Amino acid sequence: MRFLAFALLLVASSAWSQVEIEKPWMRATPPGANVAAGYMTVRNKSATLERLVGASSPAAARVETHVNIKDGDILRMRETKALDISPKGKLELKPGGAHLMLIDLRQPLKEGDTVQVTLKFEKAGDIKADFHVGGLAGPPAEHHH
Question: Are 130 and 57 in contact (CB under 8 A)?
């Protein structure tokens, strides 16, 4: 029984270490806003496809994964059920591209705040990340996670 528990612990810890979150950030929200977007780079260090299948945060009622799709001259935002991270590859969530959307914020986000988000991966499971809140114009000063 101890061997089985140890083996499960090794599998879980090796899966977790296969996904790395870099520079998670959000913009401060203007007065009255009830949504915010989250950005980061996700590195998949494994040799198999990984998928970001969801997220949650105590800062919002729900968190969705979104992509932007160009429809003629218009950029439209669409919810997606998952975002793929290729083997040994990376996924960049950035303004104008794929991102997390925090919906029904519990309070405004102010520059300097930190927002905890639990990212849900298909293989790696749940990984917590602290998103640093920058000004309305862009990301906060250099930070590491």
Answer: no
142, part of any domain: no
Is 141 a domain residue?
A: no
pTM for the model stands at 0.82
- The residue type found at 113 is D
Query: Could you give the C-alpha distances from 71 to 54, 74, 77, 113, 121, in angstroms and in order?
Result: 25, 5, 10, 35, 29
**Residue 103 identity (one-letter amino acid):** I
Within 13 Å and on the Cβ side, how many CA atoms surround 11?
7
**What distances in angstroms separate CA 131 from CA 59, 61, 86, 108, 143, one per listed residue?**
11, 17, 23, 14, 10
Angstrom distance (rounded) from CA 124 to CA 16:
5
Residue 49 lies in a domain: yes
- Residue 22 pLDDT > 80: yes
Structural domain total, the chain:
1
Q: What is the CATH number of the domain that holds 117?
A: 2.60.40.1890
Q: pLDDT tens digits, residue range 76-85?
A: 889 999 999 9
Residues spanned by the domain of 16: 2-134
